[in-house]
Amino acid sequence: DAEITQSPRHKITETGRQVTLACHQTWNHNNMFWYRQDLGHGLRLIHYSYGVQDTNKGEVSDGYSVSRSNTEDLPLTLESAASSQTSVYFCASSDDSLKNIQYFGAGTRLSVL
Amino acid sequence: AQKVTQAQTEISVVEKEDVTLDCVYETRDTTYYLFWYKQPPSGELVFLIRRNSFDEQNEISGRYSWNFQKSTSSFNFTITASQVVDSAVYFCALSENTNAGKSTFGDGTTLTVKP
C-alpha cells in the first residue's frame, strides 16, 4: 500500500543546531506540503512543492527551507533551530487527480531546548 | 485571501448525544473545495469528506453528516449518537481549485465524548 512516512517521529535538539526532518511518500504524488501544528493555531503551512525542483513558501516559512530533488521526498530543514520552532510537524501529499485531498504522515514532534 | 473559522474551540458531550461542529469559510474564488479531517488522540490526520463548491447536496455517511450552505459560507459537520471513539480534534479546510491541494485549515475543534 502507498504511504507517507516521516522520520524521526521524535527529536530533541539544541538552539542553533541545524535539523532536517524527512518526508517520504510512495503515492507518486506531485504535490507535497509541510505544516506545523501548535496549540490554538491549527495547521499552518510552512513550505510546499508542486513537483521536482519546485518549492514555495507558505505562511510561516521563516527559518525553514525545503528542497525537492525527486518525486518521493521533501525534507524540511531548520537552518538554526529556535525554541519557537518547538512544534509538531506534519508532511502531506496530494495528487491533482484526487481533487486536493491531502494524505498526511504521522507527524514529527520536535523539541528545541 | 482564504480563511476558515471554527469558532468552537472545545466541545464536550455525553455519549449518544448529537453534536454539530461549525465551519465558516471565506474565499473570493467561485471554484473551491471544502474538507473535514479528523485527528484522534493518536495524532494522525485522517481525511473524512470533500465537497466542491458546485455541489450543495448534504451528505450522510453512517453517523456522520455534512451540511454545506453557500449562502452562509458554512460547511457544518454533525455526528449523530456520538461515541467515545469520536473524541478527536476535527479540522475544516478550504482549497482553491487552481492551487493543487494547497489548503487553509481552521484552528480545529476538540471534541470530547464522555461515556
Sum up the structure in keywords.
heterodimer; A: 113 residues; mainly beta; seven-stranded mixed sheet; four-stranded antiparallel sheet; 11 strands; 51% strand; B: 115 residues; six-stranded mixed sheet; 54% strand; globular
Question: Could you write a compact summary of the structure shown?
Answer:
The complex is a heterodimer of chains A (113) and B (115). Chain A is mainly β and 113 residues long.
SSE inventory with pairings:
The complex is a heterodimer of chains A (113) and B (115).
Chain A (H helix, E strand, L loop, with lengths): L3 E4 L2 E4 L5 E7 L5 E8 L3 E10 L2 E4 L6 E3 L9 E3 L8 E8 L8 E2 L3 E5 L1
Parallel strand pairs in A: 2-11
Antiparallel strand pairs in A: 1-3, 3-8, 4-5, 4-9, 5-6, 7-8, 9-10, 9-11
Chain B lengths: L2 E3 L4 E5 L4 E3 L2 E3 L5 E8 L6 E7 L6 E3 L2 E6 L4 E6 L8 E9 L6 E3 L3 E6 L1
Parallel strand pairs in B: 2-12
Antiparallel strand pairs in B: 1-4, 3-9, 5-6, 5-10, 7-8, 8-9, 10-11, 10-12
Global Rg of chain A? 13 Å
| Amount of beta strand of chain A | over 45%
What does the radius of gyration of chain B come to? 14 Å
Q: How confident is the prediction overall: mean pLDDT of chain B?
A: 91
**Termini distance of chain B?**
41 Å
For the biggest sheet of chain A, the summary is: 7 strands, mixed
* Proportion of residues in β-strands of chain B: over 45%
Describe the largest sheet of chain B. 6 strands, mixed
Helix and strand succession of chain B?
Answer: EEEEEEEEEEEE
Query: Averaging pLDDT over every residue of chain A, what do you get?
Result: 93
N-to-C SSE string of chain A, H for helix and E for strand: EEEEEEEEEEE
Beta strand count of chain B:
12
Question: What's the shape of chain B?
Answer: globular
